[in-house]
Amino acid sequence: MKRLKYILLFICVIYLISGCAPKPGEQEPDNMDDSGFKEGAGQKLLAFSLSGTEKGRKKWDIEGESADLLSSELVELSNITGKTYNKEKVITITADSGTLDRKSNDVKLRSNVVAVTDDGARLTTDKLNWNAQKEEVWTKDIVKVERDNIKVKGAGIEGHPNLEKVKFTRDVTIDIAPSTIITCDGALEIDYKQSVAYLNDNVEVIDERGRLKADKARVYFDKERKEIKKVIAEGNVSIKRDENITYSRKAIYYADEARIVLEGRPKFVIYSSIQEESNGLNKD
Asked: At CA 113, angle to CA 108 and CA 117, rounded to 5?
């Protein structure tokens, strides 16, 4: 009798289990990825995080306060915080919103985009493209970069998120405290690690000592004193001090010595009570 009861109980359990199980074709697909999304559009998460490693070392991570899956590859994020890690420093990037391409790892950041390094460099812009895996940032928008006493503003940028080397595309202004302004129409490449900036197209350097114009220029900075150490200007160089002007093909300005060396058929225009001109002096 007991044996019969056990047999009936077993049959009931089997029946209940089979009745609760999904029918064929109704089984939920096992397509959840490591960020918690299921394949297909329309999914939403209240929190999102993703990270990448290289040779067992964490290389980057990105977090969003909320996320919407636009497609199997595109994720719309809000209140984004991302970080890249290298041997020298940590870079933190924040933005109000952005779109992550999970295939390429490109993130298109939008609104109040700020990148800060742990040694004090700061980048701000409205839009910024960031690839954490390749360690690249780029945009066509206006960008401001501040580091030490140097502020740079320009349109279009590409470089490494650690801001050691940055290239601006056009319309660049460098503001060096306390009173030096440098502008150029063309590209500017600034290498903070080597303390040098390369400027192109209609370069102009202005400070309390005068105004220098040239087709292109290299500006060398003193890291310790945080000021200009040397300027090498080339192509249609003109230097104006008070009302006096010098012209040359090339000029080298040594800030420590307050000395200028002119090369390439220099010409002096000196204004006094009687205007005088002298040509071909101090040829190198």
From this structure: 110
Whether 8 is in a domain gets the answer no
Write the CATH number for 255: 2.60.450.10
pLDDT for the residue numbered 101: 92
Mean pLDDT, rounded, of the chain: 82
> Per residue in 230-257, pLDDT tens?
999 999 999 998 889 999 999 999 988 8
Domain, as residue range, for 244: 177-284
Residue 18 falls within a domain, yes or no?
Answer: no
